[in-house]
Amino acid sequence: MRRFAFFAPLAAVTLIAGAAAAQSPDVTVVLGPGLIEKADELGERDLLQQADQLAVTVERALAREQALTGATISLVLVDIRPNRPTFAQLAAQPGLDGMRSKSIGGATIEGEVTLADGTRYPVRYDWYSSNLAEVRGFTTWQDASHAFDRFARRLATGRLAG
């Protein structure tokens, strides 16, 4: 009988987690047409990873705030700029220095949030460093990640308009 004493709380937690997962927002991210055209320049793998990263960042922010339960969020990564050269750029231009070359980065995101009751809200957000002095990151996609975080926080706190 003691074995079941352990499983009862475990089953309750699993049931609650399953109910929460069923209510969590559905987030999808696709690449915009302009970005698809830049796939050869920036690297398709990098772009797909950034689209996945945007989805994960939004999902985590919404889960943390328990916001937009039951909503469907369809996002388009319209534009993205790296702070450092991508692998594809380094391969295409051997003169680039992967460590010392840096540029203004950021991202533009558009999409639509459909609430559980069917109400739709368009969303648009962009953030880019305004000059090289602002570029503090050491990673290729630092400013894009910063844009994703800012967008996700705005979405999770109910500021749907860009």
TrEMBL record:
Origin superkingdom: Bacteria
UniProt keyword annotation of Signal present: yes
Signal among keywords: yes
Signal peptide: 1-22
Keywords tagged on the record: Signal
Name of the protein described by the UniProt record: DUF3016 domain-containing protein
